């Protein structure tokens, strides 16, 4: 077998003659699996070679007219066991988070933390602080309203009751570019496409920074306006309720969207009396102002009045002294919500943080150059890929299955590999912070609690890359990148490939079977399951 470090061929592997009976058994198995049926007990399909089995899977009608890049390798030796179009550049969607996260562990380090500080250059006169108050962020994507409340409490505990000055929000660690390159305009209101700032707020412990949770409940009677609550409670956003409560049994068709260019969130549609209403995660416009508003409200709640206005984007003077500080969890722990739930904002913040660390510039261009530097160091030819953001939200990203496989092999020798591996979703593990975006997939198969991998989803683009042990306990690296299909979902095909790998043996024997769970709950759409809130994966 060839090693992955050698040049990967453009085409699939060549195979010997096929036996007609074996081929028909494989095809029958796939037809059954594709329809979501389970094979009867004892109806295992006749075993053949691994390349034959994977070719059959990739010949599914759902991939007609589409493009597939697939590489499978022995994780220990690097020997390539299967490849199809390994050098074809395809849209990887959230598989882009694999190089971003690996580079972050190397460049920032597993122990890297983000700090949020309150500082001043003013002077104290009893309980009055004369001078400006600075709120300085370094990019913490996990900062909650309660963390800003803690900062305000420490200011109050120091004896300050009034600040005769302004509240200046310092987000200058990063540049002013808020949205990634070629991000879709119709995603702008969505929490998974939130604006990027060095100073922001997450509404809950999924840490979707730069967003609020809007909950809409029906009124008590038909004709009433629905009741709306925002988490965290903040006046930074305005809610324009245009929706109506209708009689019990009526339609629940609420829409919650933020208008472009501001923080007016419009609620439209109908919701029935006694109905469930809806809950939506919505991005805010200008997250720096959001953080400043939450902090100012916390100061007021703790009896500290700031007499001046709030100003954004002001750098903190070097001579300022610290009044309070909050430190985030270390990166090795942050990777868990980041990778398990495929958090786009974490990826972009880490990208800009890498740029600042390497070149002193918290920008996408500097951060992506840092990621590219890491990839070159592990043998990936960055002249043959295009990465324009950290998360994979942009449809301009182009990487190959061979590049992902090479990266997955290389990171196994890194000192931080165990922490990085722990962040990958685990097939059929029920805990959201273990199974993540694979939580409902491949259940009832040899891949359950065995396969780990990073998912990826955009319209017409789906990917899954990671590790799985075969039937003999041999660890395999796999990368599956599928593009340009018209089917509602090809995730069942990804699952079937990984299940086939889990069933294969070291001598190359493999069978395509109608494995229970090959078409699993949560795998019926190519939208990342963690993005379908509140019905989370």
From TrEMBL:
Keywords: Carboxypeptidase, Hydrolase, Membrane, Protease, Transmembrane, Transmembrane helix. Its EC number is 3.4.16.4. GO terms for molecular function: serine-type D-Ala-D-Ala carboxypeptidase activity. It is an enzyme of class 3 (hydrolase). It comes from the Bacteria. GO terms for biological process: peptidoglycan metabolic process; proteolysis. The chain crosses the membrane at residues 21-39. It holds the Pfam family Peptidase_S13. Belongs to the peptidase S13 family. PANTHER family: D-ALANYL-D-ALANINE CARBOXYPEPTIDASE (PTHR30023), PENICILLIN-SENSITIVE CARBOXYPEPTIDASE A (PTHR30023:SF0). This is D-alanyl-D-alanine carboxypeptidase/D-alanyl-D-alanine-endopeptidase. The gene is dacB.
